[in-house]
Amino acid sequence: MDPDKKGAYSFLEFIYIFFFFAIAGWIWECSLYLIRDHVLVNRGTKYGPWVPIYGYGGILVILLLWRFRRSKPLVFFYGILISTAFEYLTSVVLEYGLGVVYWDYSEDFLNLNGRISLMTSLAFGVFSLLGMFLFAPAATGIARRLKPKPRRIVAIVLCCLYGLDILACAIFGFNPASGL
Fold first, then answer.
1. Run of H or E residues at 34
2. Residues in contact with 65: Cβ distance below 8 Å, sequence separation at least 6, in sequence order
3. 12, 97, 125, 177: least CB-packed within 10 angstroms?
4. Of the candidates 71, 72, 58, 62, the residue with the CA atom closest to the CA atom of residue 28
5. How many other β-carbons are positioned within 10 Å of the β-carbon of residue 43?
6. CA 120-126-130 angle, 5° bins
7. What are the tens digits of pLDDT across the range 33-79?
8. d(CA 62, CA 117)
9. How far is residue 157's CA from residue 180's CA, in Å, rounded to a whole number?
10. Where in 6-124 does DSSP place strands (E)?
11. What is the rounded CA–CA span in Å between residue 1 and residue 112?
């Protein structure tokens, strides 16, 4: 089913979108550290191959910007605003709620308290465009190729694995984002 015709993605499709974005974010983050520091680092608060902020951020962007999908400049601009605010808020929650700092942009040009920076904000504008017009359609395309029952089973398995990861974090503490 074309999301343009029905107006939004289904709940099941959002599960696929979340995991697609979260896993793509994990690959992106691990690749950056591998290239920069020559070490493979499991980025993110969880132990699995996902960085939840990308999944939740991507869903947030799609939900809030769906009505602007016909205007790429608006998706880019509002994507910057939404993602930057979300990243800042997430860093505050992680630091004061969990006592961890997963990123620090203090050395970057035009940063705010090391939590956000101009370059990352611009990158999230680009990711908003990619998410809306490439990644979300790709994720739902993958889901739609499956028959309904396997589609539900894969979604349930992914959610169970994510739930087990959250349980592991509750028992053993959150991932320290150190080298593998």
1. helix 11-37
2. 74, 75, 78, 79, 82, 128, 132
3. 97
4. 58
5. 24
6. 135
7. 899 888 888 877 788 999 999 999 999 999 999 999 999 999 999 99
8. 22
9. 25
10. 111-112, 116-117
11. 42
The whole-model pTM stands at 0.87
Cα distances (angstroms) measured from residue 173 to each of 4, 55, 109, 165, 168:
42, 21, 33, 11, 7
Distance CA 143, CA 3 (A): 13
Pair of tokens at residue 56: 């939740």
Report the candidate in 79, 102, 81 with the shortest Cα–Cα distance to residue 90. 102
Structure confidence by residue, pLDDT tens digits, 81-133: 999 999 999 999 989 988 888 889 999 999 999 999 999 999 999 999 999 99
52 vs 45: CA distance, rounded Å = 8
